[in-house]
Amino acid sequence: MKKLLTISLFCLFATVVVAQGQTNTEKPCPAKIKQGIYGKVIWQEGNQMPGPGNNQKKMKPVKRELWVYFSIQRNDLVKQGKLFQAPDVKPVAKVESDENGCFQLKLPAGSYSIFTVEKNGLFANLFDGRGIVAPFEVTQGKVTQVDIMINYRSLY
Q1: Beta strand pairing status for 60-61 and 36-47?
Q2: Domain spans of the chain?
Q3: Can you tell me the distance from the alpha carbon of 146 to that of 136, in angstroms, rounded to the nearest whole number?
Q4: pTM of the model
Q5: How many C-beta atoms surround the C-beta of residue 55 within 10 A?
Q6: Is the C-alpha dihedral spanning 43, 48, 53, 58 positive or negative?
Q7: How many CB atoms lie within 10 A of CB 89?
Q8: What spatial distance separates the first Cα and last Cα of the chain, rounded to whole Å?
């Protein structure tokens, strides 16, 4: 009986520890639109290398303004450290993620680039083989999932 009680308490403790370690980064963002994009914006910073004494921090969803442009090539942007200056063209659309990092945006079919608006510029960290920045496609009558990891303050 004592062994059963010990095992039960251990399982309860393990469940509480695991539950406290989780954030709502795993909570899905539902799409309520019929065409465009939806997704989640996640912030990550600190030392992401495994090992003792690392400063690894958890990822967390964040509110951010997102700017969407027709596809932009990396060569057409001016880099400022880890961020970009805003291009000379106006964004096609803007949207803000909520406190859970969730966003959705109706867009016509086409090819686009997406950036987060940071204090000192725009951030994007994905590029395709042609040099298109943070590329995604919207197909007629479909919703595309676009998840964004803001990690310019992370070390790998």
Answers
A1: antiparallel
A2: 27-155
A3: 7
A4: 0.78
A5: 10
A6: positive
A7: 10
A8: 48
The structure tokens 């095992």 sit at 7
Contact yes or no for 50/69 (Cβ under 8 A): no
Fold of domain 27-155: Immunoglobulin-like (2.60.40)
Cβ(92)–Cβ(138) under 8 Å? no
AA identity, residue 71: S
Distance between CA 111 and CA 97 in Å, rounded? 21
The SS3 call for residue 14 is: helix
User: What would the pLDDT profile of 23-65 be if each residue is shown by its tens digit?
Assistant: 445 678 999 999 999 999 998 877 677 777 665 567 899 999 9
Burial of 22 (0-12, 13-18, 19+ CB in 10 A): exposed
From residue 32, alpha-carbon distances to 27, 38, 70, 135 in Å are 16, 9, 23, 22
Interatomic CA distance for residues 53 and 99, integer angstroms: 30
Whole-angstrom distance, CA of residue 101 vs CA of residue 63: 6
Report the C-alpha gap between 156 and 138 in whole angstroms.
32
